[in-house]
Design brief:
Layout (H helix, E strand, L loop, with lengths): L2 H21 L3 H62 L3 H6 L1 E13 L4 E14 L4 E10 L10 E14 L2 E9 L21 H5 L6 E12 L2 E8 L28 E8 L5 E10 L13 E12 L2 E12 L2 H6 L3 E14 L2 E11 L10 E13 L2 E11 L9 E9 L1
Antiparallel strand pairs: 1-2, 1-16, 2-3, 3-4, 4-5, 5-6, 6-7, 7-8, 8-9, 9-10, 10-11, 11-12, 12-13, 13-14, 14-15, 15-16
């Protein structure tokens, strides 16, 4: 009974070994298997090499791309700088946008001792803004319509200067500019004042229009106070002209510059509608050292301008004092004048005025040499920058000189 189980186990073991022997591959099969695995390894190695090559190419491509990106960034930065430089450099379009062209003119008809029609002034402004703080201003004028040898007119540069804003309360300028004195000398467009002709006091005593070459400062104290100070070329009058101030204007045309002049002005505009001003000028030799009998000259001028509603008032006084025996002998050592001008506007388009003027270019110890003139007239503005004028002047000269009583008609404009 015990032998039978042992025999059963042996039979099972034998069967298991027989089955295992039947599954074991032959040598040829093993060789084929090895060859297949070798082929797979070689394929994997080839694939690995291809992958490495691809990675190397990708890295090279990445480097090239990085170089192109860097070059593009440099190009972008250079383009930005060029754009900024271009924005700061005026182009033709910006030049036009920053340049202003304007002007004014006036036609006069006078009927009195001499009947005459004259296009008195044709003026063009050429102004340019280099920046918010730096600018150029100029004024080119043709007087009496026709200029040249033997002709009545002149071509003149009244202004040509560079102006720079040092700060919000201080400006500097250099070149040819209008002298800061009087009411009309700096602002004389025809639509800004009454009367066809400019008043005789600011013509003979100031003498408007008066420009010189030099340098000037303009500033503000605050509370409505302002000031000007200038050093510039001076007058050059002489005995042959009776030391008349107006004859001494050299107009910066090969002007003798042995003796400079100095002008200072203080002004007040702190009350709406009111302008007050006083100016002083000194010149060491008013003949530019050409006359040993003449010497220094001093101008004092003050004026007031007031407007309230339709009512307006202008008043001005100016006086020259000339040193030296020459001016004293001619009675020209003191030259002065004043005027007062009330006006009233019935509307923005229509206004009336009256003006009384006295002036004397041969005062001092001479006999009566006073000139007197009264004007009454009307201005009509069809547009704020266009004016039609009509007035009548009554004039009395010194001694038996009855002066020139006449009718004046005018057309003026500015733009």
């Amino acid at each position: 009974m015990r032998v039978l189980p042992w025999l059963g186990g042996a039979a099972a073991l034998a069967a298991s070994l027989s089955a295992h022997a039947a599954e074991t591959p032959s040598v040829e099969e093993l060789w084929k298997l090895v060859q297949q695995q070798q082929e797979q390894i070689e394929a994997l190695q080839a694939e690995l090499q291809n992958t490495r090559t691809t990675v190397a190419q990708t890295e090279q491509q990445v480097q090239l791309t990085e170089q192109k990106v860097a070059q593009s960034q440099e190009l972008i930065e250079a383009t930005e700088e060029a754009v900024l430089d271009l924005a700061e450099t005026p182009s033709n379009a910006s030049w036009a946008e920053d340049t202003y062209v304007g002007g004014y003119g006036e036609l006069h008809y006078n009927a009195g001792d001499k009947d005459e029609i004259d296009f008195h002034r044709f003026v063009l402004f050429f102004n340019h803004e280099f920046s918010d703080r730096l600018r150029f201003n100029s004024e080119l004028e043709v007087e009496h319509a026709l200029a040249g040898d033997g002709k009545p007119g002149e071509v003149e540069i009244e202004q040509a200067f560079i102006e720079y804003d040092i700060n919000s309360q201080l400006r500097a300028k250099g070149g040819i500019f209008l002298i800061p004195t009087g009411i009309l000398n700096e602002v004389h467009e025809p639509n800004t004042f009454y009367g066809v002709e400019r008043n005789p006091v600011e013509n003979r005593i100031i003498p408007s229009t008066w420009w010189e070459a030099g340098a000037a400062l303009t500033g503000e104290f605050g509370d409505g106070f302002g000031w000007d100070a200038a050093v510039h070329s001076g007058l050059a009058t002489n005995l042959g002209a009776n030391y008349a101030i107006r004859s001494g204007r050299q107009k910066v045309a090969e002007a003798t510059a042995k003796d400079a002049a100095f002008t200072a002005r203080i002004k007040y505009t702190g009350i709406p509608g009111l302008r007050l001003s006083a100016s002083f000028q000194h010149q060491q030799d008013v003949t530019q050292s050409a006359d040993p009998t003449a010497g220094s000259a001093r101008l004092f001028e003050t004026h007031a301008v007031w407007s309230s509603g339709g009512f307006g008032l202008r008043a001005l006084y100016a006086r020259w004092d000339l040193d030296g025996a020459g001016p004293e002998a001619m009675g020209a050592d003191v030259q002065d004048g004043f005027y007062i001008e009330p006006s009233y506007k019935l509307s923005p388009n229509l206004g009336f005025f009256a003006r009384y003027n006295e002036w004397d270019n041969k005062a001092g110890d001479s006999a009566d040499s006073q000139w007197r003139q009264a004007d009454i007239g009307v201005n009509y503005w069809p547009h704020a920058n266009v004016v039609l004028k009509a007035d009548y002047q009554f004039q009395d000269g010194p001694g038996d000189n009855d002066g020139d009583d006449r009718v004046n008609l005018g057309i003026g404009y500015q733009f």
